[in-house]
Specification:
Domain VOC: 17-141
Shape: globular
Number of strands: 6
CATH architecture of the domain at 70-141: Roll
Largest sheet: 4 strands, mixed
CATH topology of the domain at 70-141: 2,3-Dihydroxybiphenyl 1,2-Dioxygenase, domain 1
Pfam families: Glyoxalase_6
CATH superfamily of the domain at 70-141: 2,3-Dihydroxybiphenyl 1,2-Dioxygenase, domain 1
Protein name: VOC family protein
Radius of gyration: 16 Å
Length: 143
């Protein structure tokens, strides 16, 4: 595990300074309320354009890109779910209490795909289907 400085010892040691996941949400207001208000991702920027165009940029903390080969994805699916399958792109969000956050997200309209469970890599993971069709892994590091 590294701090904000990253493995190289300098913040953003590579050429990429930010990872931004861009999601089209048919029900923009519902998705915004879910991620900003329920999940607690503060709004950093907002822009409006012609013909009702809207975008909100929400702070998701530190971002990483996790690349997994198909065998690893199958392994993760066996560990994290009861037979569920990962979408090709799945968003994983680290929280302090997986069970509590998952319950809150389901109460706010997310669909539970897999309840919280401890993994071999010492985290507690759950999966939900959030607004805008995003598959989320909610995880809590135990170490």
């Amino acid at each position: 595990m590294t701090d904000d400085a990253g493995a190289s010892g300098t913040r953003g040691g590579g050429r990429v300074r930010q990872l931004r996941l861009v999601v089209e949400a048919e029900d923009f207001e519902a998705a915004l309320a879910f991620f900003r208000d329920v999940l607690g991702m503060p709004e950093q920027e907002s822009y409006s354009g012609d013909d009702g165009a809207e975008v909100r940029i929400l702070d998701a903390g530190r971002a990483t890109l996790e690349l997994s080969n198909p065998a690893q994805v199958r392994f993760i699916d066996r560990v994290e779910t009861d037979g569920g399958r990962s979408d090709r792109i799945r968003v994983a969000l680290e929280v302090d209490d997986t069970s509590a956050v998952t319950d809150e997200l389901v109460g706010a309209g997310a669909e539970l795909e897999a309840s919280a469970r401890e993994t071999p890599w010492r985290s507690v993971n759950a999966r939900v289907r959030a607004p805008a069709g995003l598959q989320l892994t909610i995880f809590q590091e135990l170490d």
